[in-house]
Write a structure and sequence with these properties.
By secondary structure, the chain is α+β, with helices and mostly antiparallel strands. The protein is about 30% helix and about 30% strand. The strands form two sheets. The protein has a five-stranded mixed sheet. A two-stranded antiparallel sheet has the order 2-3. One of its GO terms (molecular function) is 2-C-methyl-D-erythritol 2,4-cyclodiphosphate synthase activity.
Amino acid sequence: MRIGQSIDVHQLKQGRPLIIGGVSIAHEKGLDGHSDADVLTHAIMESILGALSLGDLGKHFPDTDARYKGADSLQLCTCVYEMMVQKGYKVGNVDATIVMERPKLAPYIEKMRDNIAKVLHCRLDQISIKATRGEKMGFIGQEEGAAAISVCLLEEV
C-alpha cells in the first residue's frame, strides 16, 4: 500500500463559478485558477499523485498549457485515475476536508462524494469528505480563499 497527502488553496473571486467536488454551488464568489479551480478535487488528485511518486498537478497539467484553461477537474481526475491504474494501484480510501467560511457545504457533501467515487471507480464508503470553517480568522475566515486537504491510501492490485 501507499499513502499520499496534499493541500490545495485557491482565492475566491467575483465572477467565477464555485465548483467543489464537481458540484456547482450558487455563491457570489467562485474559486480562481487556470482550470475550474476545484480545490477539493485538486487536493485529492495531488494526494494520489504523491502516493504514486508522480509529482504534483503542475507537472501533469501545467497552468501554462492552454488545453487546461477552464478544464473540468473531474476530467483531470480521470487522467490521474488512469495513471494510478497503470502503476498497478486502486483506491483504498480517501479522507478529505474542505476549509471555507461560506457557503455551508453540508448540503453538497454527498454529491461530492458520489462524483469522486465514480471518477476513482470505488465505493462511496471509500470516500470521506468533510467541511469546516475558518471561524472568521485568516484568509479563509475573511472569505478571501478556500483550502482542501486530502489523504489517500492506495492498495496494490
